[in-house]
């Protein structure tokens, strides 16, 4: 806002929105405004034009199909928080910020801002999410989330939705921050298990510029865990511990580390994502097969979920 | 908490009257200073130095003045009166002129037709800075031979007599030597160094003022402040206006906690109003608020405590260094409090207490709830636990054994005035029932809400350990060291437009949330036997009420309201006595036979029973009264003297759960026993001690304004975390109510004492849970789980008795980073 006055555009459809973006060439997108409004007030963003998306009802849809779950970019955290078909997403959404932030903030906003500590990015990275975009010139495009985060939104492009491939198994999202509730994540960790093929997706946030996958830990889980005869007791504990160690190693060696803060030294972050990963795996191991879904969520700290 | 609440605005002292402004605040209609607006007003914004230290080579405002909609730009060159201001010494420039001394220091201000044009103009001001290396380490700033950071600064204190500290960067140093042998040492010795981070007052309604230029050449200002008359004095001097033309009215204040004791935007806004001849609204946003007011002093402290083998404290030595930042603010008074409280609420045979507040290029620090006492309370209470450990004694028993009682001699060589139930408090709090142990089957634990880190952290209950900790402290009440911080009040008993008698009260007491508006009404109802109270707006048309700080307004302005009301009652009763034809001896002292009761004047012996309305038919009765507290003394060169008017004590017990793997802390329970004097409003008292406790909790585990090379890096509520309702447990509060005999109704101030003790009690509980020596607040998760200097015990510092007081003796090691 400092220096210039931004023109406000209020399209009603995705088509209109992409046309406006194509004409403007350069505009900021406004959905919940939880990142843009503070940036405007602080003067760190000074757009010539703002395209407000609240009236684009197409962006506010969500659904489940054979190729997975599709969530519109305009869906808010509050809407996701109670959404039974996507328990992992729902658990993540419940952990975001305060009630006010959850009411305003959207999925598209999380992708657009790409805050490296963003809760949703960690979960979506673990879940192999794809980003669906649309532009007037090139039409629709589907991009793997890591590629989208690396390259950012293209000029004239609108994020319309994210798609999560179907999995069958527990999903856990854990995070820590400075107080008991309503806090930005210091670090976070997400685990998405597919019992069908034994794959475990593990991502962690708050360490690097985008959430890395812990590939060695994922390989370890794939090799060591038979999800048809889930280990228990000391064996489960040992697996979780080793899994956490591998995630700590992944964090330590991750590229593009975030700068160390006076209150969050890097070695603590590496340690903490390992602890969270071990806890997350322990929960997945303890989650009874077939009992997944919203009902399983909430036990012992509450973000075990299945889909 | 479902107890029936009394009807608002009916009761006298002792009842839980409700706040008259409560409904408006809760429903969102209360007008805070930032909500004020006038037609045609201009919007002002402030330009701040991005550099912690820079020479200002030049400022070019011509481009800013050409921005459409801009009405005026002011800089140091436009200050017509005194160029500097300050609470105690005038060392802070209205705008930085030749050198910016901290990051965030105002350099210019603009007024424009709207906020956007004002911001655009700020961006157009060209300031030519020549950055200089900032001095951000107080030990370096006070080292012998260190270059002065503000060579033009005057001395501090009344008449500048705090000057002559011997070093240009030391605001004030104090060296208290107590006992026959100040360097006496007992059999068992513990010593260590402690670090205390910078807390911010973080009041919710940012700074704001609305200034209207008046036809008489003066100004009318509505602003949110703690002390109208002190603001007026500083504003008038800088504007070159007589004080009577500088009229201030209190705007709605949304919290203060010390952060509004200093002038911030008032002079800037007034300069712009006078320059433009138009009303000016000047206001800060959250980031500016964090940069704009002084914070709580960060501290580095060394303590050595020694005791006999059976636990009698023998000697305390301390060295307390407060980082005052770039300008003096109240640093000279804060260090006075810190050093005189450094031995804590304990009897000591010998003490050697040294302290200094130091100028650096960090953000200025000044008043915040506790005013120098929370720093040393964190230190001396950590030491008492270590001493208990070394002695193999129970920490409560050690405290109880050494607790001060009324008449015990303080390190300043004077007896502590009573009541002083310190021992009773720590024993009371230790006897409160403990919370039940963590139950994995409970809903709170099962959901994770009741585990450290809350639900998303997923703590394993088997890896959560509980700890219990105690702290005992004292806090001085009212202004100290010779100050006569009197409070004035005017009262009038009159008939309202409906013919019903009512009391009209006028004071300059700043209501900042503490509840004076409630208490004043209760006092007037008690003294004048009426129900209706009219509280005139607080402004400078009446005498000074002094500052709303130092736990003083219930005592001081409460005393003034009581005195004014009593004088009104005396005059009315005398008038009635005269009308009744009673003898002159009764007219002179009418309370011999007449009294006010329930809206009537009664005198059974003379057969009088006159409704108040009838007695007031001849006209209203008005009186003014100024309340003074007992005189105190300045400290002499050995730190001896009767410096403080009175004290209040508090004891906290904290119970915490710690996630042993992640270092996350949940405060499970807090119990408080506090020395409260007579309670005028139990509900209001509870609010004060709960708030003070929560602020101490914030400092213990989360609140820290972090600077890197002098620049604040977290000036938002996204990054500066305050405790929420999920972080603060219910407070188990016991009020101990021995009356303070030299105070009106026997009151004591209550807002500050619990802030000092909550922090060390919580840190002690964390220590008990994890078994580490925590020497720094706020405690950070990494301090609890990562290997490093924090984990290793042992004395961190040399600082021997023979070298205490010399700048180079204590390394100022950060207890964490080492």
From TrEMBL, chain A:
Alphabetical list of SUPFAM superfamilies matching this protein: CO dehydrogenase flavoprotein C-terminal domain-like, FAD-binding/transporter-associated domain-like
UniProt xrefs under InterPro entries: CO_DH_flav_C, CO_DH_flav_C_dom_sf, Diverse_Substr_Oxidored, FAD-bd_PCMH, FAD-bd_PCMH-like_sf, FAD-bd_PCMH_sub1, FAD-bd_PCMH_sub2, Mopterin_DH_FAD-bd
Domain annotation FAD-binding PCMH-type: ranges: 1-169
Domain of life (superkingdom): Bacteria
Annotated keywords: FAD, Flavoprotein, Oxidoreductase
Molecular functions (GO terms): FAD binding; oxidoreductase activity
Record keyword Flavoprotein present: yes
Protein name: FAD binding domain-containing protein
Organism name: Frankia nepalensis
